């Protein structure tokens, strides 16, 4: 797809809100595909060791499903993989599938439900009449707590949701002129974020441990941190640039001083330690991979062509749109919606300048766990 075609697609989407969601889905899909092999390997291992536990009905949940096309992409992948494994073993019948789609209560579940008739039709058209039944339900609520009955899940899946905290950490008063952890943040800010993440991730593991059957699997992909000490490297430079943009615009600095993003990007050591300390799961696999900030930006019709880069401002704008898709609701709630268009317009310029000098990437982790 050329950049002209990509921009045309954006223009054809009627509202600004949907345009930024399209960009968000594009970049997240890149990360999901990079982690595909871990999901495939996990499903294969489940099938070989625990097929008897779901031979009649395979029950799974997608936590933080959002409302875009990536949600149904993941479900389709799981169904296809299980069916493929059944055929390879000459099993006459694949299990039925019960899928729960979870997100917060203000998620647009109606958009997901509107996509289901076409999704069901596509499943049936691509396979014979022997295709197993698939039942999909919405499940609103926070995954930092129980959502389903005990021993009711075979697979838990989540992509790009666990970096969100349940709340803004307490004790960030000294993080003035930053909106997240930055290299210039005082030590107590790093500790406050870390404590909140430890509480939330432990609650998440405890809740899933109660909901899953013994031997059930969990595959989680989220944005992480490449270094153990966050003061030594700015893995969240995009937030630093956004804070600088807000500094240029907000006349009442107190408003900025009281604002912080409820996001935490853990390092590998923190994830490993939390899983072992909580004790409900065995960590089978932990892999890391990079996704460039502008991985969704088409370059001369080829995302791998580094010799012909699109207009630098447009590149910055497309990256700004991705970040806008998940930061706008939080920022608008705190500062008001009147500054939003101007804010992200200015932000795009700062990003364009930064990207002309640097080639930054998001550090991602994918983990696979087994319920003990």
TrEMBL record:
Gene3D superfamilies: Methyltransferase, alpha-helical capping domain, Vaccinia Virus protein VP39. It comes from the Eukaryota. The keyword Thylakoid does not apply. The keyword Magnesium applies. Keywords: Magnesium, Metal-binding, Methyltransferase, Transferase. It holds the Pfam family Methyltransf_7. Belongs to the methyltransferase superfamily. Type-7 methyltransferase family. PANTHER family: S-ADENOSYL-L-METHIONINE:CARBOXYL METHYLTRANSFERASE FAMILY PROTEIN. This is Uncharacterized protein. It comes from Rehmannia glutinosa (Chinese foxglove).
């Amino acid at each position: 797809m050329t950049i002209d075609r990509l921009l045309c697609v954006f223009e054809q989407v009627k509202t600004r809100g949907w345009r930024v969601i399209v960009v968000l889905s594009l970049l997240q899909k890149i990360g999901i595909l990079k982690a595909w092999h871990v999901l495939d390997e996990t499903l294969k291992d489940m099938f070989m060791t625990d097929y008897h536990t779901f031979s009649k009905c395979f029950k799974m949940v997608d936590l933080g499903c959002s409302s875009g096309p990536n949600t149904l992409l993941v479900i389709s992948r799981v169904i296809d993989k299980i069916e493929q494994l059944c055929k390879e073993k000459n099993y006459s019948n694949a299990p039925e599938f019960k899928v729960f789609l979870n997100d917060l209560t203000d998620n647009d579940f109606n958009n997901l439900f509107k996509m289901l008739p076409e999704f069901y039709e596509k499943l049936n058209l691509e396979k014979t009449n022997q295709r197993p039944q698939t039942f999909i339900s919405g499940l609103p609520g926070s995954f930092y707590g129980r959502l389903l009955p005990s021993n009711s899940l075979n697979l838990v899946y989540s992509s790009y949701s666990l970096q969100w905290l349940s709340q803004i950490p307490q004790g960030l008063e000294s993080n003035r002129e930053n909106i997240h952890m930055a290299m210039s943040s005082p030590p107590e800010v790093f500790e406050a974020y870390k404590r909140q993440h430890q509480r939330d991730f432990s609650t998440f593991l405890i809740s899933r441990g109660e909901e899953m059957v013994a031997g059930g699997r969990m595959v989680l992909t989220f944005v992480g941190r490449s270094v153990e000490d966050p003061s030594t490297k700015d893995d969240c430079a995009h937030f630093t640039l956004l804070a600088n943009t807000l500094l240029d615009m907000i006349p009442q600095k107190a408003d900025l001083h009281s604002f912080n993003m409820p996001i935490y990007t853990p390092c590998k050591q923190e994830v490993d330690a939390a899983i072992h300390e909580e004790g409900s799961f065995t960590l089978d696999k932990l892999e890391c991979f990079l996704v460039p900030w502008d991985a969704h930006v088409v370059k001369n019709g080829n995302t791998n062509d580094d010799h012909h880069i699109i207009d630098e401002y447009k590149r910055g704008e497309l990256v700004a749109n991705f970040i806008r898709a998940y930061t706008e609701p939080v920022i608008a709630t705190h500062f008001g919606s009147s500054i939003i268009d101007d804010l992200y317009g200015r932000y795009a310029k700062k990003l364009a300048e930064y990207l002309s000098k640097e080639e930054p990437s998001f550090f991602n982790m994918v983990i696979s766990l087994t319920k003990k």
